[in-house]
Design a protein that fits this description.
heterodimer, A: mainly beta, 4-stranded antiparallel beta sheet, 40% strand, B: mainly alpha, 3-stranded antiparallel beta sheet, 67% helix, elongated
Chain lengths: 416, 651
Amino acid sequence: MFVAKSIAADHKDLIHDVSYDFHGRRMATCSSDQSVKVWDKSENGEWHCTASWKTHSGSVWRVTWAHPEFGQVLASCSFDRTAAVWEEIVGESNDKQRGQSHWIKRTTLVDSRTSVTDVKFAPKHMGLMLTTCSADGVVRIYEAPDVMNLSQWSLQHEISCKLSCSCISWNPSSSRAHPPMFAVGSDDSNVAYGGKVQIYEYNENTRKYAKAETLMTVTDAVHDIAFAPNLGRSFHVLAIATKDVRIFKLVPLRKESTSSGPTKFEVQIVAQFDNHNSQVWRVSWNITSTLLASSGDDGCVRLWKANYMDNWKCTGILKGDGSPLTGSSGQLTAMSTMMGSSLQSQSAINGMSAGRYFFPALDSPRVGSRYGHLLPPPSLIENCEAEPIQPPPQPQVQIYRHPSRALLPLPEAEGL
Amino acid sequence: MEEVDVEPAVTNIPAAGQGKHLGFAWGPGGILVYETHHQPKEAKGPGSPYIHEVRKDEDIYSPILRKLFNESHHIFVGLQTIRDELPSKNKKPQFVSVSKNYRSIIRACMEELQQVAVSSQDAEVASQYGDQVSILLAIELIWNLCEVLFIDAAPAGSLLLHLLDWVRLHKADVDEKTREVLQSESPAEHHNYWDVVVSYVLQGRLEEARQMLVKQANIQPAARNMYKLMDTLLSKMPFYNPSGTQTLTEFDVKWRHWHEEVDRCLQDNSFASSQHLETICKILAGDEDTLLEQKDLLSTWYHFLVTRLLYCHPTVKPTELHYYAQSCLTMFLETSAPEPLDSILLAAFEFDIHQVIKDCSIALNNWWFVAHLTDLLDHCNLLQSHNLHFGSNLREFLLLEYASGLFTHHSLWQLAVDYFDHCPEFGHVYLELQIERVSLDTERKALKVLRICEQRQMSEQVRSICKIMAMRALKNNRLGSALSWSIRAKDAAFATLISERFLQDYCSKGTFSDLDLIDNLGPAMLLSDRLTFLGKYREFHKLYGEKRFTEAAKLLLSLMMAKIAPRSFWMTLLTDALPLLEQKEVIFSADQTYELMCCLEELTSSLNKTAPSPDQPMQDEDIEVTKVELLRLALARNLAMAIVKEGTVEA
């Protein structure tokens, strides 16, 4: 893998969340500078900021997109104790010409008395529903009954989790076999309070959410939680960021036909990794849940992958190299141009490292070289030798750091 | 299966390392990474304002490799259908030919890449393509060996012939050297002359070696007899002919005779006066030390292996290969460590298919090769016969990885669909998850995605795509498009909403937009009541326009009587009836007029019940009152005329 592009986000404070829209053509960023920015990807793959506005009166923790079936809708949550819903409206032609779009606030959800720590839309088959959780230990589920009128949201459920909540994740499974279900994590660090991950399930009869399970083995603070796409399996997979990365399997136990209570699960741990050394802050699955990414106190993003025997292991690490790009809005254009060209040359080197390790002889065509027969015709070789060797501006490419490594595991091996 | 622990690849991000956190977000084909701190209180400073787009290798973005993907897709799809057509024993030649097809596209791709690399002015591009060429060369080399050993599974005798072809194909630089030698003024005195001759002998290309030797013999008349003797030796060397009548044992006996003859020549010192001929004779005798002296010409241990087999064990059995391979590797490399390619080839010689696949997936930077090779081997039933219980899972696992990679590309994703189709376990779910993420940039692309989903009965995805498109069109005020998408989605609620908008537009502007669509609704009209009304109401306008007044009148009335028209729209409908009532000839019959009157009374009485709001301007109310008065008058007059007319006809 390689850094293909660096985008000057131009937030004036720490970025807390970046979120792709469903199709990956747009993204939203939010920051301690109290603003949200929306970015659109142009035909040539460049990101352009098409909207930037102040959303809250405190740090914005999370920003998330509704499914495009409901239009272009964003939700944000903040330290200012509120969550807000934003909708893009087709602007005046002036705005379009300037490449700007208009976002208007449809509602502010003010029910929480403490910082709103996470905001998530429910799976689309449930309609347009928004969930928040907050430091006061309450999960709130709101619904917009009329998707054409997003200024009306009704608080449908208020679920008290007793412990300060930090994160929430809906089970994306839309099968009729599973009633709506979500997991909520608590960052309360008091081990004595027991399990920090609770699973809630909707009960058709009572029309309420009831606790189905508490993961008793997770007693340390939980910072993030993520259900994997179901893939048609009979069980659910849940990743948890706590003092380590954990992957759990929740196998529903056969329900007695008379019982109307929530589903009981057999909870199995599939994997547990303490490679981040200390706290893990985020976990997230890729589209087909073949890869899990986690970020932690070691300053790295780690990628985890299962092979066909369901053995999980770390297949990639993204690591800050200690040379952050800096730039203020004034010199953005110059910066990105510079980045563009230098990164291009790196990508060529990094992307090809496999070939070099595999065939060390390509650029050293000695007579009688072991791989001499694998050489392209002489004309090509001359051309290769003529390649000006440019030292990369940043030591981003692994081969420069570990020249003795015999074999570089490749990005594709991670299936990214 | 033993797990070789491979260190995870580290990608450096231009961000602060210590004391900061990296945030991330999954996206199509990559991951976004940004500097952050998850405990803001502890954060020192705002951090780097950059977001980094981290991507995997760019292979799929190379236009030439795209051809490889496209063409191999055809072969792959073809291979999936072989299974049913033929009884199993007849399949082998088919599989071999499929394997050759795969290899030929690798070769074609390689040649193209090389041409581009050579002609490129940009050194960077040239080296990039050059690297790709070398990867493809390795892939082809491995694939070819797998074809010989696993797919063709040649028995003793033929096995060596195939291996010879394999070595000759991948060590073609001899021909280049020959050309150089032959083009010189005096080939026999060229400094590469003996290299060429010996190379030919090492590859068992004895005819060509003899032709070269003739040139030397011609300029050395004194040594003519010695050359004659060598020529005889070379010409007499027996080669096994698998299609001939000769048995392997007969061949073996014949070969042993020849070998004894070579040995005799050595003992007699027949070639003592020519160092080169002596060397050749020793090679023919299979002398290991002499062979190892030719390292530069052999260049690889597997060439050494094949040459050694040719002159020592021409009837080698597949099961014995691993022994010779291992010893040749050790002899040839001496102290240097084997490269990944060496290990992969050695695993192949050991018939450890699983190891080959595994090593290849680690060493090569794309899934293309392992996915296609594994699929082919699985079709040959080789994965099971090697006691890999996860056989079909391994195939599917690799195909899913490969196809998922294709899905991140803006045009190659369409190929991936067929790969998913041929993954029985998870293919369908993967396709569902991936295809709904394809960005629906244009209506055309949306229709393309939709067709794929429809063909596979993916009703949820079909519904979702249509809903997305309908919502987008509505937000952009393209009512016609929104309506047709919501009809496709069978989304009644949304169709009602859009129909309502159409009617509102009509009320305010007096004309309909998107007439084509509304005129051709057909049975789709029944999706929602409001849509039915919209369609019927437009039909009324058409009849009216065509001056088919009687039919128009009947339709108008039925819209109200059957309660298809919303009450809020009745006044508009009654107003529409006005000109019909005022025609010279009678259009509404007496009965119909009664019914119209009934509708009007129902409407006005319900209007009266709701007290007029004080906000409503008096003017509006006046207009309404006048309208009702006018209608009443027109209805009364029409009723009179109708009664008169109906009475006249009856009489």
